[in-house]
Amino acid sequence: MAKTAPPVKKNDMIELTFEDITHEGAGVGKINGYPLFVPYGLPGEKAKVKVINVKKNFGFGKLMETLHESEERVTPPCNVYYKCGGCQLQHMSYKMQLEMKQNQVKNALKKIGHIEGIPVHETIGMDDPWRYRNKVQIPVRSKDGELITGFYRKRSHDIIDDMERCIITGEINDRLVGAVREIANRLGISAYDESSHQGILRHIMVRTGQVTKETMIVIITRKEKVPELNRLVDEITKTYPEVKSIVQNVNPERTNVILGKKSKLLWGDEYIYDKIGDIRFAISAKSFYQVNPLQTKQLYDKALEYASLTGEETVIDAYCGIGTISLFLAQKAKKVYGVEVVPEAISDAKANAKLNGIDNAEFFVGEAEKVMPWWKAQGLRPDVIVVDPPRKGCEESFLQAMIEMKPKRIVYVSCNPSTLSRDLRILEDGGYETNEVQPVDMFPQTTHVEAVARIQLKESK
Ligand code: SAH
Q: For ligand 1, atom 2, which residue shows the shortest CA distance?
């Protein structure tokens, strides 16, 4: 029917006013109620837009010219921002980024969780929202016979060849990527070529302790034998005293996964160390470790506040990873039980507990949804449960097990407002109420949203 046909066609040039923004950071404008999504458009702006894709209920456009500019629009400081897939929000003020993230949490709670009228606080942001990442992993390729490093272009595997630096990555990391590339280039080490699966150097990874400034370099190669590798190591260690560890990781597969199975210490220590709050962490080449420790501290302080521990509580930390939250909680609880599905992460968690002299935290390998019923059968009665699941949220069986265990409080740390809201609905229907939610900006300049919710049992029976 003509009435339902989209009001625009492909390649139309239109004027559009943006009213809203999607969780991917695209501007949303409407023509007769038909929404068009336009990357880089900001609410309040009017722009000339080319229609590039028309679907039944919505379409996509390309921003050609801004006719009225938002006061929140800023010039992206990165020279490759519009090519790179890494950041999505550099064209908007940091203030607007924080508001956008708060609104996303609010909207998801309302639309998906039917939860309204509770405090969703202002996003906790960073004083300096740049150079916050402690880790960079960057592909190496060859161009005109020289080694180059750069991230992939959006939706492609072509490397951005004029990327000088990444300004959300720590300065030392940036500098060392450049140094390793330059030395390897001089020594004639070849770059990996994806299409022929030939060449040696696949990726350079650099990770630095936020507090300790200790740095680890991981050189990821297609095969183990690399000519001139010893000289590469020599030159790096002579020039860069902050480097405490150099590891070779061998990845012989045709794959997008960066790290291979085999790691080999080339020089220095197997671990570097870092601190979040009072807790020290030993980090190996393959360890998962939060990429923004400053904001991680903010997030965990909030989780700890929401857990309201007095020292008498038994606490479960589900999806505990390397035990970062568990060890934070253990300082204030009687006993903490952590569960996590990746065995290496649990080894790290145990080692980190030992490193900090924490003996009231116990860690288990397994799927949270399977371990919970088992714990319940064993008679474990937690006072507080903390969860920090991956983007897909918690399994329903896990949520039900939690409801049956009846902890007084649940603290839900989430990296996806949609699944958070879905899961909170289930908890609310099971007798819990959400008291408040705090968004924390762990990844400035990107669309990632992290939030922590405080949830309480309505009445203890
Ligand atoms: N709390 C940790 C890590 C959170 S990331 C930290 O702050 O560092 C989510 C974790 O959940 C990952 O480590 C992932 O391996 C783990 N995971 C995913 N599915 C799981 C499941 N079904 N049961 C237990 N852990 C799971």
A: 321
